[in-house]
Amino acid sequence: MTVLVGVKRSADCRAAIRLAAQEARYRDTSLIAVMAYPAERGWSPAVKPVATSLTRAEDRAVAEDLLREAVRDALGDEAARVEHRVVADLAGRALVHAAQTVKAQLVVLAARRGIPGVLGTVSQYVLRNAPCPVLTVPCAEASSRGQKPARRHSTSHTL
């Protein structure tokens, strides 16, 4: 059993990574950071000019670098203890599949910016399909406006 954290390409996920690491320590289990990237080519942000598309291997390498950087920025020296997984798939589907595969105890996600209290499509998908509880963490902008630091959402399962 493990704690899983979804990592996206924005700074908003840093708080989610820190909270997931705290949960993993509390539960005395491992932490896996997952970043999904589209299977289509050319998604990478500002790495090469628009006229130049990246190969699939380059797309994966960019995602791996972004994931490592996000975890390192959030956890510093503790980042070495986190397992990294990069998946060429839709984010929600990748997170649910990873949670099922590792028998996750908890999935932690950064909430999207936008309307406070309204979950984004990835969070909604994971919430509806995850095999375990899901914890959403508001983006830094929302928490600086005095909103609650995290929301616990869980799915109910019939035994």
What does this structure look like?
The chain is α/β, with parallel strands linked by helices. Helix content is 38%, strand content 19%. It contains five helices and six strands; from the N terminus they run βαβαβαβαβαβ. It has helices at residues 13-27, 56-75, 91-102, 121-129, 140-144; strands at 2-6, 30-37, 83-88, 106-110, 134-137, 151-153. Helix 4 links the parallel strand 4 and strand 5 (134-137). The chain is globular, with a radius of gyration of 15 Å. The model is unreliable at 142-159 (pLDDT under 50).
Features:
single chain, 5 helices, alpha/beta, 159 residues, 19% strand, six-stranded mixed β-sheet, disordered C terminus
How many β-strand stretches? 6
Helix content percent band: 25-40%
Distance, first to last CA: 18 Å
CA radius of gyration is: 15 Å
Oligomer: single chain
Largest sheet: 6 strands, mixed
* Strand adjacency order, main sheet: 3-2-1-4-5-6
Q: Per the principal axes of the C-alpha atoms, what is the gross shape? A: globular
Ranges where pLDDT stays below 50 over 5 or more residues in a row are 142-159
Structural class: alpha/beta
What order do the SSEs take from the amino end to the carboxyl end, as H and E?
EHEHEHEHEHE
Tell me what portion of residues adopts beta-strand conformation: 15-25%
Number of helices: 5
- Average pLDDT level: 82
Lay out the secondary structure.
Layout: E1 2-6, H1 13-27, E2 30-37, H2 56-75, E3 83-88, H3 91-102, E4 106-110, H4 121-129, E5 134-137, H5 140-144, E6 151-153
Parallel strand pairs: 1-2, 1-4, 2-3, 4-5
Antiparallel strand pairs: 5-6
Helix pairs in contact: 1-2, 3-4
